[in-house]
Amino acid sequence: MKFLLVFDFDHTIVDENSDTWIVKCAPEKKLPNGLRNSYRPGHWTEYMGRVFVYLGDNGVKEDEMKRTMTTIPFTTGMVDLLGFIGENKELFDCIIVSDSNTVFIDWILKAADFHKVFDEVFTNPAAFSSTGYLTVQNFHAHHCAKCPKNLCKRKVLKEFLDKQLERGVSYTQIVYIGDGGNDVCPVMFLKKNDIAMPRQGYALEKKISQLAQDLSPVECSVLVWSSAADIMSYLKVLIKE
């Protein structure tokens, strides 16, 4: 009897986008227009690479970035939810699949002492170079036309489940908690017994209801949440069953 919880990070665990939060470190807390307008759809990681170069060029150091990132607020109820999951780790395996980066997620989870709640974090690898600039790379290469170039969350989830099966671990149910358009692909991979939990008012909820209108609904159950307390209520029912 084990459940797999799959979390997105930005606008799910934290109530902001970690990649745009870092702009608070920039001169006047904003980016030049030329840089802001250089983003191309599907190429967010390359764009963030340019943002990190700009911050480095302006003398923004690692400790300042870390201080800024650890002030990002958690979503309402999330601190209690992660505490609850941490107390029930024998029932829950818990992973993050995110388009953020390893440095940001690591800083934020460790500052709040939540890093032990998660078994694995799948996100874009980042590191500081010898010159003190933050660098970021694409998580992997894939052939999914629906997803951004650097990350197909369905592929990550499928590979994780395959690896767990090789270790003899299978799950009673997968609970997928997210908010964004790039969460649609993994949600469409979920089976009848699984559950997708889209955040109310965000892109994932809208896209799931659009799929239902287009008569190609997702196979799994759908439960919308607005506070992480809604997720905790569901998990409490789940473990009582």
Automatic annotation (TrEMBL):
Pfam families: Put_Phosphatase. It comes from the Eukaryota. The keyword Metal-binding applies. The active site is at D8, D10. One of its GO terms (molecular function) is metal ion binding. Substrate binds at D19, D99. This is PHOP2 phosphatase. Belongs to the HAD-like hydrolase superfamily. PHOSPHO family. Keywords: Hydrolase, Magnesium, Metal-binding. Mg(2+) binds at D8, D10, D179. InterPro entries: HAD-like_sf (IPR036412), HAD_hydro_PyrdxlP_Pase-like (IPR006384), HAD_sf (IPR023214), Pase_PHOSPHO-typ (IPR016965). The lineage of its organism: Eukaryota, Metazoa, Chordata, Craniata, Vertebrata. Its cofactor is Mg(2+).
